[in-house]
Amino acid sequence: MEKSTKLLFVAAIMLPLGLYLILNGLPDTSSSRARIIVNGTPTMVGGLALIYGRVGVVTAWSGMARKGSDAIDLKIASSGITVRGGHKIPWKSISRVTSIQYDNTAKIQLLWDRADLNRAFEVHFNGPMDIPRLRTKDGVPYLKVNVVRYPAVDYTRLHEAFIAEFERRGIPIDEKRKTKET
Prior knowledge:
Structural class: alpha+beta
Mean pLDDT: 82
Strand content: 25-35%
Distance between the termini: 15 Å
Number of helices: 3
Low-confidence stretches: none
Number of strands: 8
């Protein structure tokens, strides 16, 4: 949300400046290429900042608007786990878990904060479950639980506790790294 707000602030300055330069034909130079660059650069920067800022605000707002059982990403209890939507999954239904760590390789890292825990869990099941967001890969049903962009300071201990609980229950954990450009 903070980065998106900064991008919107940059857009609020650059976009009107660029539009003013284009509409008034300033500055008057002998080279039309120079005029296009001088007039178009603030407009392009402002337009891109506006687009990225709006996407970031909408994404952050939708994440903050979750309430009740939709606000749960992953909750562990003695009977099993609870995922978004309040769906309870017993321990015996879980066959394995894949812990995914995302790495950002983008040249310009606009909406990516290195202080966030860019992780996800894929919880694989022994059989079909009655969960709307369930996916299937190679005939095995699984559910992806994202913990992407949570502050790592707040969430690292919980992430380690989830891993430890899966291991304590005898559920195999696969570690995987993926590249994600944003």
